[in-house]
Every structure is written in structure tokens, then in C-alpha cells.
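hi!! sorry for the late reply, been swamped w classes. u asked for the two structures so here they r. pasted raw, havent cleaned anything up. first the sequence of the first protein and right below it the C-alpha cells
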Amino acid sequence: MSNSAFDQKIQDVFGEFAIDKGLVRRLGATGDDRHVPSYVMDWIVTHNAKSGQSTGSIERAVRDFIAKHLPPKGEKERIRFLLSQSETLVLLDAISVTVKLGKEIRYFATIDCLDESKALIDPSIIEQNQALLQGSTWGAVKICYDGSPEGGGIRIMDFKPMQTGRISLDVFRECREAFTVEEWLDLIVRTLGYEPAMYAETEKLWMLCRLIPLVQNRMNLMELAPPGSGKSYLYNNVSRHVWLTAGEITPAVLFYNRQSKSPGLLTRFDVLVLDEAQSLRFSNVAEMQAQLKGYLEQGVYARGECRATAECGLVLLANIDLQQQAVRRYKNGKPMFAPARPDYIRRLPELFHESPTVDRFHGIIPGWEIPPFETQQQADGLGLKADYFAEVCHGMRTAPDMAHGVRARLRLAGSKRDCAAIERLACGLAKLLLIKPDHPRFDELVVHPAHELRRLVRTQLHALDPQGYSPVLQIERFESLIQRGTTLGRISDYELLEEIGHGGMASVYKALDTRTGDVVAIKRVRTEGAELDERAIRREIDIYTRLQEIPHDHLLEVKAIFRDPGSYALVTEFAEGGSLWDLMGGDMADEDRVALDEATVKTISLQVIGGLVALHENDIVHRDIKPQNVLQCDDVWKIADFGISKLMNNPVTGYTFQGAHTVPWAPPEQIEGATAHPSADVYAWGRVTAFLLTGKTAKDAVRALPKPWKDLLTPCTDVVPENRPDAGALQVQLAKIAC
């Protein structure tokens, strides 16, 4: 397809979300000392281009706008002088806010173009724009000089953030259907500011891999490349949800500042990029390494009194020593580079020379496979507006992903880290390409790059520790296990791969659905010779049968139920992310636990209460809500294990296992054998939420909570069931708590 035909297709399909990248490049705010991200320039062009205007008119309008509202830092004294003359100005800039707590609470804003860090700002503006508290936010800022005697200075009168209109992922997916996968890859490359015709397909795929952390939660990547390959440029321009930094990194900056009690960068953005990683300096290397290993593995960190989870991905960018290859060449005809030494990971600071730390990175992007950037490779045609594409990527992180379909296609067994890394990398690429596992090029465009990204991690692990790590991926397909007869048996269409739990009459297995390729969990309960009566068996089967009719994001999905003369089996989705109990440190003593931060607890507890609302609306009482029974599936928390649950309106099952309970989560009336009622789940939910907030399992943990949480949870843990609120009311009240 010719460039003009491709441009017309982009315009026809995406309409107002398409933009001339060549025009934006020509109008860029260059020649001064200001960096204006691409997504900001796209916004400026969009808001100054009128329908039917000539290119020349648009250029003049944009340049006039930049001159008036986007001054270079060299003009900061002129701006200050105008303010001193009682003028009110509107600037376009990146603004952030800090809160100073003392005898008097004060709010200060940073205005980059004026090198101003103590601009006055009213809390009402902050309340309407809370993103200002999380980092620099671009927008239109209205300022004046405040000469009041109690503390004058530059004052922010109003702030309007740059915002893309509400996006629809469904519409975006529909637009994707108009393009072949090759055209779609070219469109993304053009959107990033590069001309796709200047790159080979493999080069474009490696460029695409840079975006995986933008669409997939908590992806940890390295890119090791020569200078000038465009890696820093991309992350600095692609999205307001990405933060790039360099220099000295401290635990306070990265995780949590114990003095100011403020969360670090990992809690504020979708992706944190550490640039020039070969020159990074770390204060307190031992603490940083320990914190990083915990965060890279589970997305959890604990520092001082703060324990929190985050979904931010971590990307390291570093320049390494390279040598030219005699035979291989880039698309532009120039000789390709390759690492000058096999252990190129040693170019990074010593903190990253420890193999367990490196093993927690999902992949290494071979930046040497991407040609160094040259002017003629800049985009010269239509692409998507950068701010629009950034919000689409941000939305994809929390949208239902393609994990089940990708896992079913991969069917991987072996090293847990290798399997998880390849699955997550493949999910990210599948999201970006919007390509389904049945596409004829799925393996070529998704699976093979994911394997290679992880294989490169393996080569560096072997270079660091030849005895401990093989350079070869430690994975195989499930089919190989089945052919060798090394599985644990079969139940109907499910091949049992490994036992993952055992207790009493039940065993839990990780299994493969041989029809779909899905990885599932199977709970198999022996009934022959066991002390189970028919009512108990019917009760559990009835519960799981009802659950099959209640699809809900926060209830573990029930896939199938089997019954034979000697046992019965329950098939559910497989929860690979562990439980809330694991997140809180498992069986460690209460005095050694660290509580989660309030924002993390709110996120988790809203998901759990949402699941309870669905259960209670369908007349099911769980009766065993506890941290061990809340499991993580693809970054979503779900209620599991309905072994002692009850259908409220079923007389056959209403009194079976009446006194069953788990201390300390069950309410007093359940321990005494009272009839099942939803208020029991509310009590347990309150106790679990207090546990997450304090790290303590004792009931009096509620008393020590901040007032909003205490007001929420005290009624939940009332000993009188009738005094407890219902789950729906709690869901509404919890959503209103500010964190």
C-alpha cells in the first residue's frame, strides 16, 4: 500500500484521532532549552488546527500559541516582570504539588518553565486535580502575583489538565479490524514518531517491545543498546503515565520516604524508566537490592511503617560496548551491531550483578537489533495522536486481557519464572498487536519474540552464575509431559500436571484442559471410606453449580463439576498470583508484619466486597472469608474456596457443617452454630480489611485505625449481627474514602 493510501486509510478509520506526524515534527518546540513531549505537541496542534485550514495557517497558529503560552526558560525573568505589573498569564507547563505539614498546612506548586518550586496554590484546585500530587502533570496554568502580607509570591489561580476525551477500548478494537497485522504494526511505529518504511519487520517488533510495560501491569524489562537508538526518546515522549529518571536513586525516591511519609515513584506511574543505567548510583545498595527483589517478584515493598503494592513496571536503559558485524545489516544497509562481550550485563552497576535480581526481570530487549536513529527515519505521514494512544495503552492495563487465550496457546511447563515471563510478555505483545492466538502469524509475531526476550535474560544469568543457571530456557510444552507419561493422571478431559495442595479428603491439582489448552485448578474430594454424608456432598456441589451461573470478576470462575462413585471434582480457573495471606507474609508473627498502605487496601477490599455483593444477591453466604481464600488471578483479587458456603434458601444444605468456621475471622454467632446469614461475611470482611491495614489479626486492631476506616469497619465487627451493614452499603461507603 502506498503512503498516501495508507494515510487515507488511517484518516478514514480513526478520524479526529489521526494526526500528521510530519507536521507535528516540523512545528516542534525546538531551538530552546525546553523539552516538550510528543503527546503535548500533538495536543497543541490539535487544539490550534481548524477544519479546512491550510498547512501554513495551522503552522502560524501553532507557532503563535507556543510563543504566547510555552515560553523557554530564558524568558522566565520577563514572565516574572509581567506578573509584577499585575498581569495575569496563562502558560502551558508541567505542574506538580507538594504538601508541607506543620503548625500551618501549606501547599506549594512547581512551575518548570519559571524554575519556581514554591508557587502558591489553593487546596480546592488540588482537590479537583489530584494527579498533581502524583507527579508532574501538563496543563494550562493561570498565574498571577499575590502580594498579600501573610506570604506573597506567584499564585496559581486555575489549572486545566491536558485531557483526551473519554476513550473506548471497544471502538479502538473495532478500528483495528480495518488493518492487517502488518499495517497495524506500521501504524504503531508511525505513532511513536518513526517512519515504518525505514525499518525491517524484526526491527519494528523490537521497537514494539518497548511498549509492553505500558499495556501490561508490572512488566520488568532491560534494554541494552548503543547510544542513539531512540530508547530514551520514546519513553520520554510516549505517555504522561511514564516517568524517566537518572542519576542517584534512593529507596526513599523509589519506594517510600519515611520522613515526609510520601510514596515513591513506583506508586505514581504505570512505568518507571531508569535511564543511563550503567551510570546509576544507589545509596544503601543492600536495602535497595532487597527491596527491588521483593518488588520485582510480587509488586510488594515494605519500608518503615509502610507496606504497599504497586502495578508500576520497571525498565532499565543502558549503553553497552558493541562491535560491528561483518555480515548482518540493518534495513538501512549499515552494518549491525552486537554485544562486544557475552556478559554484557556486567556493564550495569554491581547491584544488578546478583543473579536472583536479574532473574526477576522478564526480558531483555536487544537494542543492538534496532538501527541507531537518523533524521530520515522520522515519521512523515499520519499516525495516532500520542495522547490518545497513551490513554488507550493505560486503559489496556486494567481491561480484561488475553491471558487465558495466550496461556492456552503456549501450554508451558517448567521453570516458574521462565513460564510466567514468557506468558506475560506474549500477553503484552498480543494486546499491542490486537492479535488472537488463532492468527496464522501469532507464533511469529508474539510467541517467538517473547521467547527471545526471556532467553536473553537466561544468557546473562548463565554469564553471572554458570553453575546455577543454564543459558537455555527451562520450559517445555505440556504435550511433551503427556507424551512422556510424567503427569499424575487424568480426570475426564483434564490432565493432572502437579499437586499444589492437600488436606483431609481433598487434593488440589494444577491441570490442563486438553480441549482448550487452559491451565485450571482441580479440587478432587475422596468420598469412598470418608466421613462425608450425602448432604455435605450435595451442599458443595449445589454451591458450585450455582456459582457457574454467576460470572463475576471477583469470584473464582467455576468451569466444571464431576461426580463418580468414589470421588467428586470441582474445576476452577487457576490462580497463579497467590493469596492475601501470602501477600501479608504468610505464617509470620503479627509483630513482624508490616501493614499495607491505605490505597492498596482500598483497591483490594473493593474487589472483595464486590464479590460478596454478587454472592449475597444470589443467596449464597461464603462463611469462610479469610486472607487464605482471596486469590490473585492476572492482577485481580477473587474470592475462592466455597467448601463451607451455604445457599440461604435451601433446606437440604442449610444446616450442614453449621459450626464450621476459621478463627480469628469468623463472627461469634457462627462459632456458636447460628444459621448462615450474609452478616457473617460482612464481619469476616471487616476483620480481613483491618488485618491488611494493621498487619494484626486481633479484633481490637480496628480501634487503632484512622477515623474513616474506623467508622467503616467498627459496625462490620459488631458482635450483634443485626447491627452490621450490608455488603452493598459498604461498597458505596468504601469507594468514598480518600486515599
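now the second protein. again sequence first, C-alpha cells right under
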Amino acid sequence: MIRLSQPLCWLVTMPRIPLAVLLLALAAPGARVAAQQGEATTLVTGLVTDTLTGRPLRLAVVRVAETGASTLTDESGRYQIVVARGPVRLEVRRIGYEPASVTLQAAGHWMRNHVYLRPLAIGLTPVTVTARDEFARGLIQRAIARKHEVYAGIHDYRYDAYVKFVVRDLVRHADSAASVVLITETRTSAYWEQPDHYQETILARRQSNNLSAERNLVSVGEIVNFSRDRIDLQKYSVVSPIADDALDHYDYRVLDTLAFDERRVFRLAIQPGSEGSPLFAGMIDIADSSYDVLRIDVGVNGAVRFNMLKNLRYQQRLKDVGGGRWMPYEIRFTGDVSVGIPLPGFPEHMTFEHVAALNQFRFDERNRPPNLGELRILVHDGADRADSATWTASGAIPLTTAERAAWARIDSVASQPPDLGDWVRQGLGLAVKLSTDPMFFHFNRVDGTYLGVGNTWWQIPGLVLRTKLGYASGSDTWRYRFGATVRVSDARRLWVGGSVRDVTASRPTLVSRDYNPTYRALLWRLDPLDYYREHGFVLTLDTKVVDFTDFELHYNDLRQSSLGMVTDYSVFSVDRLQRPNPAIVDGRLRSLSASFTYDSRPLLRSKGEDYYLQGLTSTRIRVNAEVASPGLIVDDFDFQRYSLQLERRQRTFNLGLTTITAAGGVATGRVPPQRYFTVDFGMKALTFQGGGFNTVHDQDFTGTRAVMLTLRHDFDRLLFAKSGLPLVRSVPFTLSVHGGVFWTDFVGHQPNPGDSLLVAAPRAYSEVGFGLGNLTPFLSPFNLAAHFTWQLSSYPTSRFTFALSVMRP
């Protein structure tokens, strides 16, 4: 039994500060870590700019001469680096500029120092220009060969890790406790196996009091493995700097020669060969003679853009962990989050730092953990009961003075009695939560206003209890559902159970399967669903067949009856008439139904619950069947119903993300209306219907047979950036295209009462359109996209529609 996926963006309600924190597990499959500022150190920040133009220089190397520590400037030319207090010499280099060196006296916790670079002079005498640094290219070729040599000898490995995630307010002093708005710490253990299997267990976790333990799923994640040829960063597939074909995509030049552990190390600049393709930019350290990679420090080029995020930076340090294997021991992933709409008490500019320290590498133990294929992250049952020694044990990264003070400050504020403002914010948050959950509140034309209570209880291992009870004021009836499931086998994920119910059910649709139309029905009389009453009981068996699959079997014994319309109320005065609620065939349904689901998304397991982890590349296939036959058991119905659903998301030619949705079904026998197939109009009120149709106006199309196909491709900015045209490639908007076709009809079917209210689509209904996004980045997180859709068929619905949507981070 698998639950819905965890949200990517969580609302963290701090006393006096509501904060939307974007946890960047979404951005990189990798982990993240860094050395921390110590007690006798100074944080040096500043800008690196061109002396002639004043233009900030991104990806300049800032190096501490005394220690060899270095960093890169970000998109705005800014840098920050931790140095020991006292005299310090910073060396700054960038290709195309004369090197610069500045000496400063580091004192205090923080200081600022700007650096200016002079462009290299262009001589008038003839010179021979070498377009490529052949020595650097040779180093990369040897590093690629070394990569294959090392990984060919590894079957599997394990490691332990300490992970920390910190969110800071950029407006406040970087080294102050007041700047820290959230901290989490975790201890994890991970396993990797050829060719690409990974599983991580969160052994211990703690978090500041403004985040619940259930929301703290911060882990190393699968390390950004530069040994792969392609690295997935959300919707982008980025060429690794040491991919087999890296030399076709990057330019490399030697920046410096360093000494490390009595060996010579070459520091190379990584420059994208094209600004139109998603690529890394930064530097890489390669050891002389052995050609092992010792360090990677990269950002992304301008072709990689995320809503609300900028200055994404990834750093990885490696060391010899035995047998000549160089593995990451420090990883750091950082970035800035900007909110365009100023809200009282809400930080407009934040920075996140996801850091991890890896240790205790063990190789080729060949001790594969259970469910390695489908379980990606597990939370240990005792993760929330770790003692204080866990966070000071070997391998932990010491908290800075500011971070220790921030723990106390946040927890102290969280424990204070709420004031009036807190009560108002918490009340509004609770009202939004309850009003968007149909278990507590919903509104439709057959129930009127429904108010209720309900919960799902997972506290007892191996037992799930579900309760729901409420009153529908419009129909003056009580509705309920009570059920329980028991886990029989953990290995097979086998659950058995049942439920009793008296509920308002909606007819099955191919578009709005999980849609809650409450607000649109209440505000504008827009509800694509048709309803009927269902009361009786259902027995359930749910199990895994093989990895990534789920099989459900149900015995249904339900009395089904029609419901009349009880209200046509809407908040706003609209010309639209309330849709009638077509009658069904009343009777007692005894049927067997089954479904088989394949879902390629990996799972998270926490406290006995399994969640799907969101992935931008995934395949989901679901096959459903239902049979009702008086020949098998006394029944008022006699029909067979079969359906198929397919959802596929993939990157296409590195030009964006394609989403394909297909569905269809066949029903035979004396099919009642409550088992017809419907392509509904979905969400309206200027809202773009991503997985459905936008020109069908307020019309549903129904039949005993149906086929539907929709396709959407999001180019992001890649099509513009790769065009090569001077004006087009700098267009800031994103582009998407969409289209779809469906068909429904009644075939060999004897009409039922109420069928006269239904409409079929015996000819193919089709539409196409496009969308432009990133229209309001200054209003993030409400960055809008506009969508334009034209009907290609000849049905008397809308010929053209305009709709809006909000872009995801």
C-alpha cells in the first residue's frame, strides 16, 4: 500500500515568521557539503569586477595562497571564503584577465574586500593564438580513462554520513544567529551498487522547532556522480565534465599548478562550449601521474534556470579512501532563493546550504539491502530518539557559534505563547488546510455544504485505520466511511482489509480523477463531476507482485442510487446555469474489481508508510478491470469494464521535458451510467488544464468506449537559447507546446434513463496550443505562464481559449 508522494515545497510556520522553504532535494540528485567557519576564522566576501567596464566577473577563481583553499565567483561576481585570522593573501584569476593578488589583515567574524581584474592587453605584433589548451585536454582524456579503470573494479560500496541543511536570511548579518531561520541535522548510512542502484537510511535526525520531524527528510541523496556521462538536474540533463564526450562540450585550460600531499595537482578551468546548452562552468583539480580527480567546484551556465533560484553551486572534495580509490568526503550544495512579493515578516532573499561529510567507505561487501531496487530512502524507526552524543561523534561537522545560538533562539521563540498575530496566521493556515481537504469540507450541487471530521491512523505498526464522518447540509444527510487494513507481509507489501461506507461518490473520469472542484463550484458553478450515493462495504487485498508494481483486488457490495440537485448557489453572479446531475441506474452492485500498477518512481519509507518520490522522468501504467455478473453472485448489474492509463514523463533530445498521458477503456454488457467513461472539462476559470482539454468549455463527453491522448512539451528557454539568433537567444520567456485528441461513443449499448443529458464525441476531438512562461518573475513564487489553445475539430464548444498557470520552482 503506497501513499501519495511527499511535497517538494513545505510550509514551515515559525512563530511570527511564516516561511516557505524550498528543500533542494528537487534540484540535484546529489549530496552536498563543506567545511564550516571555525572560531578563529573570518568570512571574507566581496566582488570581482572588470577594471575597464565595471562588469562583475562570474566564475573567477579566488584562492587563499597560504592554504590553497579556493572558491568561484557567482553569477553576480560575488565570492565568499573562510580564512584564518591574520595576514592573508588572496590570488584571483580568470581566463582573459591578468592575475591579481591582494593582501589583507583578516580580523573579526566578517569583512569585505573587492578585487578588480584588468583585461589582458592585445598586442599589435603578430601572435599565434592556440584555440585550445591541448595539455589540459590531454589531462581530461587521462582522467576519463582513470574513471573507467576505478569503477570497473567496484561492485558496491557503503558509507556513513553526517548531513546538515541551513537556511539563512540574506538581509541579516551572515555570521549572526538572527540570520539562521532553519537548521536540520541527520546521520545516514548509504549503499551503492553497479550499475546505478542506491539506497540511503536516515539513522538519526533533529531539526529546529519550526520544522516537524516528519518533514525532515534531508539526506545525502545520491551523490552527483560525475563519473556518469549525464547528470540530471531536474528538467535538465547536463554533460559531466569528465563524460566520455566531455571534450565535445567543454573547453579546458590550466589555471594553476598546486602541491597536494607531496604530489603535483593541476587546476583546470571548465568553460561551456555553448551557452545554449545546459552545462557546468567552474574548475576541476586533477592529480599528476595518477590522473585522479581531487576536487570539483562548479556552477551552471545561463541555459540552466530555476524559478526563484539562482547562484546554484556544487563543490566536491575527494580523497584516497583505500586501494587507490578517490571518493567524495566533503560535498556542498548552495544557492539563493528570492521571493518577489514582499510579505510582512517573510524573508525576501534567502540562501540555503546543504552540507555533508562522508566517511567509513567499505567496498565490495556484496551485502545488498532488501528492496534495493525500489526503496531509495528509509527512515529508521529510532531516528527521532537519538541522544545528544550522536551529534558530536566522529564525522560530524561542528556547528558554528551562530548556528548553536540559532538552535537556542529558534527553539526559544517556538516555545513562547503565541500572540494575536500568531493566532491569526495559524488560524488562516488551518482554515486553508481544512477547506481544501474534502474530508473536512466540500461543496457541490448534490450535497450543498459538507462539514466533517476524519483521519488516517498509522500509529500502530502494521495497522491502518481510516475514519470519516460528516453532514451534508444541502441534502440533510450524514455521510461516513470507516475502514481498517492490516499488513500481513512486509516483504511482499501485502495488506488486507475492508471498509463500510455511506458516501457521495463521483462517476469515473479520464481527466479529473483526483480533482477537488469545491472552490470553483462554490464561486462560479464550475463542477465537471457527476455524483451518486453509494453505501455498503468493500473488502480489499493489496500486494506487490514484483518491484515497482502494486496489485489491488476488491470485492464490492454496494447499494447505489441517484442524487438530485439541491443547490445552484454561487458566490459570484454568473450567467452559467447549474449543470444537472444525471440519474444513474439504482440497484445493488456486487462486483469484483482489480487493478495492476507499474510505477517507475522510487519509494521513501517512513514509519511503515511508503511514499512515491517525485521524479521528472517516470512511467506509470495502470490496468483496471471490473466484472459484475448475476451468474457469479446475486447482482442487479451485469457488465464488464476494462481500462488502461499511461503517464510518461521524459527529457527529449535535451530540449526540455515531455509529458504524455494516454487513457482509454471498453465497457460491455448492460453498462449502468455510473460505469460510463467520461472525458470531462476539468478545471476552468482561466486555469490551464495541463493533462486535459482546454476548449471543451463546460461540456463533458461520455460513452461506453473512450480513448484519450494528451501531449505537452516544455522547452523552458532551451529552444530560444540554442537558436543562435542574437535577439532570440536572449528572450527571457519559457516556451511550451501542448495538444490532445479524444473519442467517446456508445457502442452496442441499450440506453439508460438520463442518457439524453449526456453528449458523446463520435468524431475525434482535437486541440493544440502553446504557452509562454516566466512572465512575472518579480512576483515569485507566483510566476505566471499564459497558454493559448485552438480547437482543430468542429464541435460547438470553444474555438479558442486563453488560460493562466503558476510555474513551479
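hope this helps!! also noticed smth abt the second:
Helices lie at 134-152, 401-415, 420-435, 518-524, 718-721.
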